[in-house]
Design goal:
Low-confidence stretches: none
Oligomer: single chain
Strand content: over 45%
Number of strands: 13
Number of domains: 2
CATH architecture of the largest domain: Beta Barrel
Strand order of the largest sheet: 1-2-3-6-5
Length: about 180
């Protein structure tokens, strides 16, 4: 079975499903002739080997958001966004840099693609399109959980997002948490 290896990936989100740990990981990967930041959800099951920075085995429950990892996982991935694959080996390399946060006003919302665009301080150079997934968390201005459908143009939001942006216009990235301010 073909295996994919990543170096210096960052765990962006951890969740559980049917006894497995699901780790959303961003990493620099090849896309054609270019290197781009990519995202994959690794399924960490009972057969996955998880090692600490000294190379000692540890339980999957020790994985935390913000950890830098090296990983080997199945090249056979789901076609979901992000793709999902079974993890064979995860080695913790250290902690990640702080969260990436953007605060701005929502300019437009694409309900079909579940994305929205923000701008900070009326500065067009700060326009970013945020792509969301089923794992994106939304909170209203009182801190109560809400849904993507509650977002409206003009709202001021605080977005915790991946530490990459595409080279497209506008730049795009993945939103992990959206809070209405």
């Amino acid at each position: 079975m073909p295996v994919t290896h990543i170096t210096n990936g960052t765990i962006e989100n951890i969740s559980s499903d049917r006894g497995n740990t699901l780790s959303l990981v961003t990493y620099m990967g090849r896309l054609g002739n270019r290197r781009e930041e990519q995202t994959v959800r690794l399924v960490v099951g009972p057969r996955t080997i998880v090692l600490n920075a000294r190379g000692e085995p540890i339980p999957a429950s020790a994985l935390r958001e913000g950890m830098n990892i090296n990983a080997s996982f199945s090249s056979e991935m789901t076609r979901s966004i992000p793709p999902q694959a079974n993890a064979y080996l995860i080695r913790i390399m250290g902690r990640q840099r702080p969260d990436n946060i953007t605060i701005g006003r929502i300019l437009d919302i694409n309900r079909n693609n579940r994305s929205f665009t923000t701008m900070t301080d009326r500065d067009f150079s700060t326009v970013i399109r945020f792509n969301t997934s089923d794992n994106t968390n939304y909170f209203d201005r009182f801190g109560r959980p809400t849904q993507f459908s509650g977002l409206r143009p003009g709202m001021r939001v605080r977005v915790r997002h991946a530490n990459f942006v595409t080279a497209s216009l506008p730049p795009q990235t993945t939103a992990f948490e959206v809070r209405v301010l």
